[in-house]
Amino acid sequence: MNNAAPTRSGEATTKGASGASARGQRRGFTLIETALATIIVGVGVIAIMAAQQSFHQKNAWSTHATTAMALANEIREMTWNLPQRDPVTGDKFWGPEDNEATWVDFDDLDDFDGVGTGLIFSAAMANGPINARRDIIVNMEGWSQTIRVFNVDPFDITTRVADGTSNVMEVEVTVEFQGPNDLTPNQMTRVSWIARN
Ligand SMILES: [Ca+2]
Ligand SMILES: [Ca+2]
User: Are 197 and 84 in contact (CB under 8 A)?
Assistant: First the structure.
């Protein structure tokens, strides 16, 4: 009986030491540790958000570039088979003939240069953008197509000459987009080609 008591006492002493050690291991985080952890997590979150924002911006730009190319191709398709001479009058009067009030009436290539400075089809002007069938494409706020037609030197098609002074024509389409937060329109694409007729 006398031997049992010291043993229990010893166990109690051992338990007491181990309990104190456990209490020491379970101590809370210090303020500095918490602050550091917060900073580390915060920096990580900010980096992820910045990467995500960058991804969205690139994705939006890519989508807009694709739309712009499609709008330019609509003009290319619309004007591809137009002749240089007006099919009614037979002459090469630069710009729309007298009886051609709107783009729906235009039947030769230089009609689409307007009075010689180009034509703009835009959502802001409620006349565009237009498709190859000359219909206004709806729900295209902020978009515009600018068409210009040039005569170029037949021996050097990179050189533009005065309107009506050559038999080789170049058509140029510039597509712009102005988003709700953009102060000015952004040029999304510019395409030009030598007319086949
Ligand atoms: Ca004409
Ligand atoms: Ca015409």
Answer: yes
What is the count of structural domains for the chain?
1
- Is 2 inside any structural domain? no
When pLDDT is cut at 50, 70 and 90, the band that residue 182 belongs to is very high
pLDDT 10s digits, 111-160:
999 999 999 999 999 999 999 999 999 999 999 999 999 999 999 999 99
Q: Separation of 96 CA from ligand 2 center, angstroms?
A: 5
In this prediction, residues 159-181 reach a mean pLDDT of: 96
In a domain, 34, yes or no: no
Q: What is the pLDDT of residue 23?
A: 56
Is residue 91 in some structural domain?
A: yes
Q: Which ligand is nearest to the CA of 100?
A: 2
Q: How far is the CA of 127 from the centre of ligand 2 (A)?
A: 19
Closest alpha carbon to 79 in 157, 161, 192: 192
pTM for this prediction: 0.76
Buried b (16+ CB within 10 A) or exposed e, 53-85: eeeeeeeeeeebeebbeebbbbbeebbeebeee
- The domain containing residue 172 runs over which residues? 45-194
The answer to whether residue 184 sits within a structural domain is yes
